């Protein structure tokens, strides 16, 4: 196993950081690693907002659900879908197609994961902040995003001040299908639920007693940010 794979498999979300800053050379490498990621049809439809203003950080932490690490992390990056640059080049561009919004979401995930892996390879840690979409319009206004540009998620980066365990994932036999879609292996899910119960029971903080199945299906039975489609539509995205 090489060092790249070791870094990938050792991933943990880090939410507590030291006060040590990330130097400019490290940050430049992280950003360049993100930019080097695959881009659908080389459209390159992502912009990153680096938030360094303390008051904006504080506001974003609150808008994301009072996640204090948004304010305290050494760096906070916001990943945005961005067709404004293309519209500026050619006003005949049609960013309203839902396919183009999907491309933006996919490309942002690929770019951000490159950034995070680069950071982790340097001994840094981070966590994704989807909570920015709790108040997408307010985040949009705070960051002064133009039309055809929309917030997707944030990322905290810094030197870890915690050492959490690697969280167990679903087994490959559940996720990987061969040649056609296979029915769910409920026994494999039951075993995974037990693994997760043991994992949560062994954590020093944020212990839980619900299984993975109970947690995830419970969440999916709830309303899930119904304001997102109107927000995207208002930005000229995902309209048809």
Tell me about this structure:
The chain has 240 residues and is of the alpha+beta class. It folds into two domains: 3-165 and 225-234, NADH Oxidase, CATH 3.40.109.10; 172-216, no CATH class. The chain has eleven helices and four strands. The chain has a four-stranded antiparallel β-sheet with strand order 1-2-4-3, with helices on both faces. Helix 2 (24-35) runs antiparallel to helix 6 (98-121) and helix 3 runs antiparallel to helix 7 (136-142). The radius of gyration is 19 Å and the shape is globular. The termini are far apart. The mean pLDDT is 96.
Helix and strand topology:
Elements: H1 3-9, H2 24-35, E1 46-50, H3 54-63, H4 69-72, E2 75-82, H5 84-89, H6 98-121, E3 125-129, H7 136-142, E4 149-158, H8 172-175, H9 186-202, H10 212-220, H11 228-234
Antiparallel strand pairs: 1-2, 2-4, 3-4
Helix pairs in contact: 2-6, 3-7
